[in-house]
């Protein structure tokens, strides 16, 4: 008699800046269902960016989980584990019932804690800060955000049971346990933890109580199991293992095979996030460095605040007719916006954009930086402006690649991921500007795929036991080869781009006085 083994499935759900995505994969790493929901961040004051954690994080997860089960017709009991990720370096205070006490303060794009950064730098001294971070404090660090709540919202601070990130909040809602992965905890909450992941009472003292921090574990450790309450909301079976999870960029890097030195991921989402695997920590105050999700692997990382958010701004502000056409049943607005952009020459006929529309993280660490359109003439059209915006993101990526290469670290393979990879011209521009081959993975759903892979790894499912084995399920898709002539032509515009911020920074800051 022939015996058929029942298939096992693994769920991955990622929450990003403007949307949440989920996938269900089988034991062969094949996607059998996927679902996406959208949400919006709020901007209640200049430099303030927030999410409603119950609605945008937990609500999206519940919608997606139920949708994946419905679409796949898979029994919840056959889903052997779930992995989640969320936008990193957020700060969400919750009470002892895991109820948010305010909206979540988002990652580096939120620059409200500038006073607290100055306060902490004065308190500890620049040398101590550099020993901790390898760079100055910046808006991507959680410690100043906690201190902002302590200084500006003392009533909320007094009621806070835990300070969580997005992935920690979701894990707590699923399991009742407060955990954070080592990668996110030691990097974003530095120096509030010792290197072994236990809270540091001395460094916590001016900021928060040690017991207000989540427990540090590995990203693919088991955080706990789906509770009865969570089961009713998500459709998952009671007792389903939940891994700790991580931030969206880390999960997306895993989905592209960043498990060894020389492997790089460039995430083209609302913002740009770059992660390069390295053998050891590399200090450069213009970039970030941390121990990566994969034990024994370090990374250099960088972030550009405006990428997909910049293209969205163009859609809503400069191309409203394209959006209206889409809403009336026409083609996707972004497709309409790309018409004739390939006919515009390298450098957009001398138009260069500085994409600091939301301040900037690396390499300038300046929340007061502002966007610039440099070189506008009466001959330029909105198509020139849009191509220039796409080129500006490529210039930013290249600027940060050049800094990494100053440290003689290998860059053997670059995978581009995120919504931006759907734009062939944009990816070709990035290849031409950088002079590097840019590949996309065959599976382009991103972080949620990495979450599902790590979920299988977390329960040590056969074939998924280690991070290195996960690469067996990652297949290359398309590769963009740099055009040598275009690369040489772009060098002139890259040099102008690199000079624009130093030439205008004082004027930018005058706008904030």
From TrEMBL:
The keyword Cell inner membrane does not apply. Belongs to the FGGY kinase family. It comes from the Bacteria. The keyword RNA-binding does not apply. Residues 265-457 form the Carbohydrate kinase FGGY C-terminal domain. This is Carbohydrate kinase. Residues 9-251 form the Carbohydrate kinase FGGY N-terminal domain. One of its GO terms (molecular function) is kinase activity. It comes from Mediterraneibacter gnavus.
């Amino acid at each position: 008699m022939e015996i058929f083994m029942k298939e096992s499935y693994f769920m991955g759900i990622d929450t990003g800046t403007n949307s949440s995505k989920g996938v269900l994969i089988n034991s062969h790493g094949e996607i059998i269902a996927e679902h996406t929901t959208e949400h919006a961040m709020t901007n209640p004051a200049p430099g303030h960016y927030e999410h409603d954690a119950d609605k945008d994080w937990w609500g999206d997860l519940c919608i997606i989980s139920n949708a994946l089960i419905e679409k796949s017709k898979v029994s919840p009991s056959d889903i052997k584990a779930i992995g989640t990720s969320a936008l990193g370096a957020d700060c969400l205070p919750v009470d002892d019932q895991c109820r948010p006490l305010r909206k979540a303060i988002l990652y580096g794009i939120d620059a409200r804690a500038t006073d607290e950064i100055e306060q902490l730098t004065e308190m500890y001294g620049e040398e101590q800060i550099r020993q901790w971070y390898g760079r100055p404090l910046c808006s991507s660090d959680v410690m100043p955000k906690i201190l902002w709540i302590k200084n500006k919202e003392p009533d909320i601070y007094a009621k806070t049971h835990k300070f969580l990130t997005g992935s920690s909040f979701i894990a707590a809602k699923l399991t009742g346990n407060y955990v954070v992965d080592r990668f996110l905890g030691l990097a974003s909450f530095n120096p509030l933890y010792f290197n072994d992941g236990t809270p540091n009472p001395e460094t916590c003292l001016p900021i928060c109580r040690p017991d207000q921090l989540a427990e540090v574990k590995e990203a693919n450790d088991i955080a706990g199991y789906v509770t009865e309450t969570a089961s009713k909301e998500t459709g998952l079976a009671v007792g389903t293992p939940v891994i700790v999870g991580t931030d969206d960029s880390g999960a997306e890097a895993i989905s592209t095979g960043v498990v060894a030195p020389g492997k790089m991921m460039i995430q083209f989402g609302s913002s740009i996030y770059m992660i390069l695997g390295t053998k050891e920590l590399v200090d450069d105050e213009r970039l970030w460095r941390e121990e990566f999700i994969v034990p024994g692997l370090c990374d250099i990382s960088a972030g550009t605040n405006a990428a997909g958010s910049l293209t969205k701004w163009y859609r809503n502000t400069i191309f409203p007719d394209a959006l209206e056409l889409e809403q009336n049943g026409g083609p996707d607005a972004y497709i309409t916006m790309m018409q004739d952009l390939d006919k515009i020459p390298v450098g957009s006929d001398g138009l260069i954009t500085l994409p600091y529309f939301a301040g900037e993280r690396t390499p300038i660490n300046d929340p007061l930086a502002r966007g610039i359109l440099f070189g506008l003439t009466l001959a330029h059209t909105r198509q020139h402006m849009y191509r220039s915006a796409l080129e500006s993101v490529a210039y930013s990526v290249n600027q940060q690649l050049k800094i990494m290469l100053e440290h003689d670290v290998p860059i053997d393979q670059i995978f581009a991921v995120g919504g931006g990879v759907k734009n062939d011209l944009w990816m070709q521009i990035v290849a031409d500007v950088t002079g590097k081959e840019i590949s996309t993975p065959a599976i382009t759903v991103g972080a949620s795929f990495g979450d599902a892979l790590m979920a299988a790894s977390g329960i040590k499912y056969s074939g998924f036991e280690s991070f290195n084995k996960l690469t067996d399920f990652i297949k290359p898709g398309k590769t963009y080869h740099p055009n040598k002539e275009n690369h040489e032509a772009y060098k002139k515009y890259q040099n102008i781009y690199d000079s624009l911020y130093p030439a205008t920074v004082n004027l930018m800051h005058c706008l904030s006085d």
